[in-house]
Write a structure and sequence with these properties.
The chain is α+β, with helices and mostly antiparallel strands and 224 residues long. The chain is 45% helix and 12% strand. The protein has a 4-stranded antiparallel beta sheet.
Length: 224
Amino acid sequence: MKTERDFKRMLEYCAGLAAHNERPWFHENHKWYEGAKADYLALLEHLQPVIANADPDLVRDILLMQPKDWMYRIARDMRYYKNRPPYEPSFRAYISRDRKSWLPIGYFLRIAPGASCYGTGIWTWNNAMANPVRDCIQEHWQEFEEIVEVNDLVITGDQVKTMPHGYSENHPAAEWVKFKTWNVIEEIPDEALTDFDGFAKLIEEKTLRMEPMRKFLLRASEYV
């Protein structure tokens, strides 16, 4: 008999972990975690064809993959999170051919009470990575702005305070060039976290709007 899955156990577990973010509580409630994790993996599997159908390249990249390969660990790497609680009280995944790499660009999904979101984008750590994206946006700025406007997208991300070296403040794309990361991340209210089928329709709508930007940024990341 197939088990019906929904968001209830995921959200309740994340709320519990947020309130008791310590190793003893985590180990005492490990069975609860495993059940909530199974629900999240089932959700990713449910979304897999919906996201893949947005573009032929996504079919190739993700349709035959295992959802477990997209999922981030719930335990924080304390080498980088000193003085922070040991666990991330959410379920997170990067839906891409390679979760550990920033390329190819995929989609990020987080489920947590009051903090769920879905989106895409490109993250860079230095000018060698950011400048090819800036060059592409600057050369094709009208296309970039049309994608933003037609699909009702909001670009967010870290920005530099002054114009990067070699770029003009007078260029029409000057404000876009100041970004170091170009993200399209949309919040998902708890009210939308009910059944998987309804959620899949929401993700389908968001993916179809975001896909032109994902493809532009993917092209920009390979820009020469």
